[in-house]
Amino acid sequence: MTKKGSKLPQYKAAAFFHENSSHQDLMAALAYQFINLELLKKALVHPSIHPMQNNQRLEFLGDAVLQLVISQELLEQFKDTEGKLTFKRQKLVNEAALAGIARHIKLGNCLYASPSFVQDKGLEQDSVLADAMEALLAAIYLDGGLDAVRAVILRLWGDSIQAAKPSLDAKGQLQAVLQAAAPVDITYVDLAQDGPPHQRIFTVAVLHEGKALAQGTGKTKRAAQQEAAQKALETLQKPEDRL
Fold it and tell me: The pTM is what?
């Protein structure tokens, strides 16, 4: 169903590509009508279809777009310190929050993935839904501009923004602890990816000032980062390891 010359892979049987069904429902849920449907289609292609022709590049952009819009809205609505605003933003843009929004608009019903990935219930994973949600926001941004994607984000995240509290996950706690000791950002380094595409296990290390603090593993990079951060916190709580 792709146009001649499109860089998208050739799709054969996906409910989404019945252009008057699933994606029309999705656009209704977003309250946004795409001008360029190819952008929407690309945002819904999971990497299990093709290692390059998928939604991962859009995901990269969507993460930045979401961070920008949420940051501006928090800045305008709250008089909190930078630290508290950062923590609130973290709660609004993390994997669980993104997956929750994706489920609300039934995004998983519109994704196109390999039969084996679907059979293994891969489309139900928080990480997959969160990544697709970011890709979808990037597609809206490229299709309609910043004002268009901002309107969609505020519509979907509005109640959550109002209720946001500056609570910390493991990564946030670690960042706060380490920056109190030395104003240097912590970094997370990918060490390994094991397993088939639909059952990846990621290994990540967390570093501060070039020193490796801990490693974590998980079914997603985010989960691995959280585990690494939690292990680093536990290490730093030991008297001999405090900075």
Answer: 0.67
